[in-house]
Amino acid sequence: MLTALTAQNTQGVSGVYEVTPQFISEQISTVCSDLEVSAVKIGMLHRPEIIEAVADSLDQNSIGHIVLDPVMVAKSGDALLVDEAVSALKSILIPKASIITPNIPEAAKLLRRRIPTVEANMEHSAERLLSLGCGAVLLKGGHLDSDNSTDVFFDGNQHRHLVSRRIFTKNTHGTGCTMSSAICAFLAMKVGLVKAVTESKNYITEAIAAADRLQIGSGHGPVHHFYKFWQ
User: Which residues does 97 contact at the CB level (< 8 Å), separation at least 6?
Assistant: First the structure.
């Protein structure tokens, strides 16, 4: 969901122009009036007013599944959201979500507690995240220092540990966004939440494994979203 645009004014000088909450609401309503939208994925929303606008629009348009990736901490560890936005996310939007997909630093910020350092602590964190009102939690464990990359899924009934080998590559840009988007796509295909999460875990694991086939720029490149089709 875009909340800012980079553009040029009439004098040709670049600048950043804020997209208003009303404009975002109109975008959502326009899409929903033309298409049958059965699932949406939400990423970073940096202001309370934007969060409120998105939540109201989702209510008005009766979206079936809401996948919320609560992006709030940069890879550097810097906070991306002000405290007011974090509070609005917790009180307004998380209770509407079918599933939230925080990584470990984001979970720690949502829960205002220390970051889990071992897999054994992730189940308790997932339970506390579920108590915020969402339908299910996928707590991503990529930040743990371990041989495997383990995510913990909890829907109130049982914990499921989704384990994959840890893949060492610098091309990891967009891993969390890709996984939450994949979950949303599977839910739109009506496969069910557990299968959507499981298939998305398999997909992102293979996309990371194939990432070194890509040579894009000199920094952290993207995962290989099209690994099945590009040889």
Answer: 42, 66, 67, 68, 134, 135
CB 156 within 8 A of CB 193: no
Annotated catalytic residue within 96, 169, 177, 198: 177
pLDDT tens-place string over residues 171-197: 888 889 999 999 999 999 999 999 999
134 is catalytic: no
DSSP assigned state of 145: -
What's domain 33-213's superfamily in CATH? Ribokinase (3.40.1190.20)
140 is catalytic: yes
pTM: predicted TM-score of the whole model, two decimal places: 0.87
Q: Where are the domains of the chain?
A: 33-213
Catalytic choice (175, 178, 201, 205): 175
Q: Which of 141, 142, 176, 221 is catalytic?
A: 176
Q: Is 141 a catalytic residue?
A: no
In which band, very low, low, confident or very high, does the pLDDT at 10 lie, cut at 50, 70 and 90? very low
Please report which residue ranges of 80-135 form alpha helices under DSSP H: 83-88, 104-111, 122-130
